[in-house]
Amino acid sequence: MPFPATVPWSDDLLAYDFGAGHPMAPIRLRLTFDLIEALGLLEAPGVDLVGVQIATDDELTMVHEPEYVAAVRAASAGQPDRVRGLGTTDDPIFAGMHDASARIAGATLTGARAVWQDEPRRAVSLAGGMHHAMPGRAGGFCIYNDVAVAIAWLLGQGCERVLYLDVDAHHGDGVERTFWDDPRVVTISVHQSGQTLFPGTGFAQDVGGPQARGSAINLALPEGTGDVAWLRGIEAVAGPVAAEFAPQVIVSQHGCDTHHRDPLTGMNISVDGQRMAAQLVGQWADQHAAGRWLATGGGGYDIVSTVPRSWAHLLAIAAGAPIPPEALVPEGWLRRVREMTDAELPATMSDGVVAQVHSWVDGFDPADPVDQAIGATRRAAFPWRGLDPLTAE
């Protein structure tokens, strides 16, 4: 069932720029938005392109410590604070850092406001997904945690159940930490194991604080996990919890650094697999959250081939206008990109993979490393939610 889809956007979002050579290059957003435009998605019925405001200090401090916000402002003026992660290799300081970071938070807040209305709708904050930022510290290319700010705003408006699903290759540590002991928010992170990837956290036994056991759910996957196993894990962990929790809003982070071309990670996922993951989230929003779904971008450092296609699919699915995987990438977009780079360009919106979801419950293989990880996660978290780790589906 299609729902109206809000897309917060401003070219000013491209000001989030850590400088030449940094993996979080703003060109990835430029190319994504241009591809979305070339595909005609902005003209799809119900798509509403809206402007973006900089989040206020009151909005940021729903999550972040006031002293940290002050430190980010000082970093904008050239004063690093490495204790708070400002001025590190991952998060170098730059002029205008506060405004650029707060604008991303403002974009995702705009999406949250659109979703939390009497008439359900969806929103996609392409620049959002800064899931590593902690209340008092930057981390992993993230200054302000726009996702956590948006969830905190929803809670402040009376929302009682938010399901956060993070399928970035990296553990969604900042969002988990913010709501670690809050039973109103269930955080599910499906990621490459912290044994082999930053931030080194997010294991099956991490299930939430003493007042919210089972509200943090972590599926740490082996390096090299491919489409079939990855989708199987997402479905096996998030599907039963979405049905049990019955969230009023689903918030999801779709970092596409799980792709096999990504230079910073070790997963083996295709654009087709990422498209299927977005379809799953959309289905769960329809089934359990009255259609209310706020999606964000996140990581993704194969900036020419993967990021634009993956997030174009995300928006298309959220808008109820899915793009066939075999659709050709518009020639006009390819022509513009050829003027900027000699990188290999995709011909279609697919990697040539048929992505399918296979039930874990029906085919658990105790010798398979991914099924072992799924089993560990379900055994650790599901009993706290009244779910049977062996049979819940």
UniProtKB/TrEMBL annotation:
One of its GO terms (molecular function) is histone deacetylase activity. SUPFAM superfamilies: Arginase/deacetylase. It comes from the Bacteria. The keyword Cytoplasm does not apply. Pathway: Ketone degradation; acetoin degradation. This is Acetoin utilization protein AcuC. Belongs to the histone deacetylase family. CDD domains: HDAC_AcuC_like (cd09994). InterPro entries: AcuC, HDACs, His_deacetylse_dom, His_deacetylse_dom_sf, Ureohydrolase_dom_sf.
